[in-house]
Design brief:
Shape: globular
Oligomer: single chain
Number of strands: 9
Largest sheet: 4 strands, mixed
Order of helices and strands: EHEHHHHHEHEEEHEHEHEHHH
Low-confidence stretches: 182-191
Number of domains: 2
Number of helices: 13
Mean pLDDT: 79
Amino acid sequence: MNTISIQNPRELLELLPSSDISTMRLWRGQGDATWNLVPSIFRDSARIWLNQHLNFSDELLKQEGYQNALPKAERSVIGFFILNADRTGIALPNFNKNLMLHLYQSDIHYDDPFPQWPTEDDYEIIATAQHYEHPTRMIDWSTSPLIGLYFAVNGFLKEYAKRTEDPPTEYALWSLNTAVNTNLSGEDNRNDFIRSRIVRPVEIPYRENKYLRAQSGKFTLCTDTLAKSWDGTKDGIEKYFPEDTPDCRLTKYLLPADSIGSANRILENLNVSALQVFPGYRGVLQSLTEAKLYNRFIDETR
């Protein structure tokens, strides 16, 4: 991947060519620049979630082997999600009751009856679970760099408030180019990361998901190539991208903590806030929380 340090968010906006507003480029903001691009099912927090909700202890995951255990655990997560949505009468995309029961009832030692899991028919329901903070192999992105910047800024403020002893010193905006390119032989191909089947862009219909629509949300799916090679480390998908090459499709923009004020003003001037990103009551409440966190950060860093 390419790594670019930016001192002022305005520099970042000036770097973006006009083509970057297209849906071919995806953006993701993270509140701590040291975090990697790790799908939520592979994070430490997912192990805690799996233990609390599905009795998958870390010892059991290690015993079975992360490469085998986590894809199976993900199936149980999706089954858990579908089952509880069905019990409360919430409609889900591509609902399949037989699949729901099988996923929920299977355990970590069960032989895999779905060797192709997940299939394209499963993507929408996995994305729905991911969007509501269930751990999956998907990663959330946006087609808007401003939405990415919004999540980076507010993610930073949350981490700053939470981590009083070691607050983050930088936040990050990731850019992933999914455009079709032409190689030297003149043949049209997807980028290396798509051809290698490591990471796959996934288009999910917005339908009635107002948050996904407001955020111009997209997803990438980490395929079994990554899932079966993951060994419990914190490495992210960025390790599959060559470093510092002109045609590298993954770029990480680093922004210092003292640029938060400038970034926040840019977002305010362009009308990007919780009120737009989370339309409805959630946005109203979140905007109040974010204003409090921002004011606290400004007061403490003057």
